[in-house]
Amino acid sequence: MSPTRLSTVVLDAHDAHELAGFYLRLLGYEVRAEEPHWVLIGPPPGTGGTSLAFETEPAYVPPVWPGRDPGDQQMMLHLDIQVDDLGSETARAVAEGARLAEYQPQDDVRVLFDPSGHPFCLWQAQ
Q: What b/e string do you get for 43-80 counting C-beta neighbours within 10 Å, with b at 16 or more?
């Protein structure tokens, strides 16, 4: 077994607590730890899933997706979130503060932006 393992994905934001709140509501996660400028959230015990952390970065610049101009802030990563009902979960994500991307590359995936502008995808298995 490898002595290393990926434990958490960290997203920068203007306000770590605000962005953590969005993902808490969206994913049904729980707060694991928090500090004034950092929050760690994760799935309820025994349910599986990946922990997310959020760090306040005053100079944070949201990525542009899809990329348009050479000087745009590049998307560094995105989250894929599997759902049972793409339509209802897209509507719920928007109600929680997400914004639907104008460009949608696939019928079985919805690209959205979280309140800090990070792209994420909701997808439904066929």
A: beeeeeeebbbbbbeeebebbebeeeeeeeeeeeebbe
What domains appear along the chain, each with residue ranges and CATH number? 7-58 (3.30.720.120), 65-126 (3.10.180.10)
* Per-residue pLDDT in tens (0 to 9) along the chain, 126 residues: 667 877 899 999 999 999 999 999 999 999 999 999 999 999 999 888 899 999 999 999 888 877 676 766 665 788 999 999 999 999 999 999 999 999 999 989 999 999 999 999 999 987
Q: What are phi and psi of 95, to 5 degrees?
A: -65, -30
Q: Using CA atoms, how far apart are residues 20 and 29, in angstroms rounded to an integer?
A: 10
